[in-house]
## 1
Amino acid sequence: MADTALREPGAAVRFRGGGFLPGTSRLAAVAAFVGLILVWQAAISFGLVSPVFLPSPVEIASALRDLTMSGELWRHLSISLVRIGSGWALGTAAGLCVGTAMALFSLARSVGLPMVSALYPIPKIALLPLLILWLGIGEVSKTATIALGVFFPTVIAVYSGIDNVPRNLIRMAQSFDVPFRDIVWKIALPGALPSIMSGFRISVSTALLLVVAAEMIGAESGIGAFVLQAGNLMQTDQLMAGVTVLSILGLIVGAALSWAERALLAWR
């Protein structure tokens, strides 16, 4: 009140309604990574950590270069990417359909919500032995494991996103006799898109985790199998090279999803 009373007539008022709009700094991100690598390298160089158990960044980079030049890295990575892509696509497609049905129809919600609540907490990698018995040791069981892991977070993201769309928008469309299909495609799904994109981030990370776990259990090729073999042979530089590839893959996928969010959610 005192500030208002002392303000001169006609003086500009500071805008205080900007909302929460946190930004990002690429310089800060790069500096954090560089700082971590420098501390890591210094710890190895000064003998604080044994390189047998944790190789230095220089050794990891050398192993990564050798694996790239020999083609071994690409062979394993390409197999893992096919498994991730197929499993994520199947799980996402099914999750979008089921989540939308649960958000729009009473029967689907009544049946689906308790089923999802009961099955989602089950670790999907624990089902891999059972899926191998049902589907065989080949690619189908691994793809099914990834698809199951992707399915549930996608269902929850789609269901909650559509359910949180402002009801006033839907009621207004219904009052103007807008067809049900148009309400879904032009109001419900676009309004739920932020939640769906957040679900995609979770499901992609889940797919990366599950493909590594599945390949460690029942595969002879793939990044997970490569990391497991390197660990068994105490080749920690190659093991960390495989882990580094997974980290880089996660960064690439995260950047792609950020670009998609900026393109699809520019209206926010």
## 2
Amino acid sequence: MPPIVSICDLHKSYADGSEALKGVSLDIEEGEIIALLGPNGAGKTTLISTVCGITYASSGSVSVAGFDITKDYRKTRAMIGLVPQEITLESFQKVEDSLHFSRGLFNKPRDEAFVESLLKKLSLWDKRDARNMTLSGGMRRRVMIGKALSHQPRILFLDEPTAGVDVELRKDMWDIVRELKEDGVTIILTTHYIEEAEAIADRVGVINGGELLLVEEKNMLMQRMGAKAMRIDLQQPITEIPVTLASYDLRLSANGDALFYTYDTRGERTGITRLLTDISGAGLVLRDLQTSQSSLEDIFVDLVGG
């Protein structure tokens, strides 16, 4: 099955010579959730804005469901829903009217039943007659999602959708994202909350300085680039690591009661068995062992150089 979004060698430069995108290529499969991670100014919003037709690329191409976003703008834009970072709502408009209005912008017939179901899914039904200016920040963010979904798009872009949202509403919002995926909606999101990408994304892309550093299935990425660390608690604290253990590149805790050993899970040999034997040979007595796996955040920080 061909990708629902295909981005090919996309460049975006400005008159002052700065480059926001430097040859980005990416295929997005229908029905997947892909998270784009990157520091501020990495090019995430520029990439989304280009695909959505808000910004024009300097060169390169983008197609949506096989249609070019420039030649077939109306057709491709109708398949896309966008929730931007900034909350932009008509202050005096009622919540329900906001969704009907957005649906009408895409020449969709008024559908009371669909808008009602969407408001209920977003926990906004009780607020349907409230004016946007009276809502909390989290509720306004929900209205933005409702507007983006009002014309029943096949693709949803979420640009920092949980910025400024409290923990409870953030959790509810990700539940909504999972439901949308079950309905077959393709979701592309940017987020600063890396633990959320780790929890819900099928694939992860890391972008920095306008370049896409990698795009990979999340679990494969964590297996390929993640390292495991072992904490070895000692019965008695030590002041320095014995010379006989120097080849293991161990790290000693601040109070001297634990050693830390990092190893690659993909290697044929982790070296753990030999290490434990050598620790015993050095006269150290173990009290406990603990292992931990690198998180997606650890991998991200390594890739973008902190």
## 3
Amino acid sequence: MTALAPHLSDFLREYLPRDRRASPHTSETYAHAFRLLVCFAADRLKAQPSTLQVEQLDAPMVLAFLHHLETERGNGPKTRNARLAAIKAFFRYLEYRLVSSLDQSRSIHAIPMKKADDKLIDYLTRSELQALLDAPPLDTPCGLRDRAMLHLAFAAGLRVSELVGLQLKDLELRPPATVHVQGKGRRERILPLWKETVTALRAWLAVRTPQSASELFLNARGQSITRAGFEYILAKHVTSAVAHQASMSKKRISPHVLRHTCAMHTLQATHDVRKVSLWLGHATLQSTEIYLRADPTEKLEALSAMIPPGIKRGRFRAPDRLLAMLATAATPRTHYAE
């Protein structure tokens, strides 16, 4: 039996950042996947997480974990596939360091990814977005911080990992105001900021207590905001905004919906999917095409440019009596006895 903890620690702390040059966001995502897996396995085996062995994370255990994600945690196929990708990457790493795990690794690699439905994205209308931006109170430091986070998340189309990972040095508020973002796959981009966004950021920086932390947004303890922390903040203000925009109650508003909203508003303003792709930091235009499918204005423009097909005027012809009789002749008649 081989202890899991040393190999998993080397994989996350050494192999990913040093050999694979994975971004901090990727390392954090993989670490979160293994937190879920280790806790699930420990609970199932009635053991302490630190005492788990590599051999205990076999294919049946991984399959049970994936089933747990979908049925009990309510995760969709995309999230399920992301967790499975992290597990497969770890066992691919083990193949060159633990020869005894080859058969186990082969069984786990044979677990297929699940096909996900390519549904239309959710996004907020202008009135719904304004209600959300106006929800945080402006008489408390936390309210000013939340308002600045919501403004910046929408204006720059940030992923939640990009938002909580922003450093003070990434922000330039002198005209022209910009934010420097390191996105997925180590792709960097510099985005200009609206005056409204700059105003919200200045208000937060004015009350932000100087701390040793270099992150732009801090929690009440002076530590950087986490993903879960921003999800909680967003859910709280969505509840307040629903009182002014009842239509929001029918939508599932996650942090990524703010990114979708930025993309949709940018597309409707520019009618150029390439600009949307540059703004969001997509590697290819294929990732941006989902917004074209969700935008009805693009279809309306295409419809107005097309010539409707001509339909010839038809003539009414009364049905032939004999054919009508034959059509109903096969229908059995019911006779009632007197």
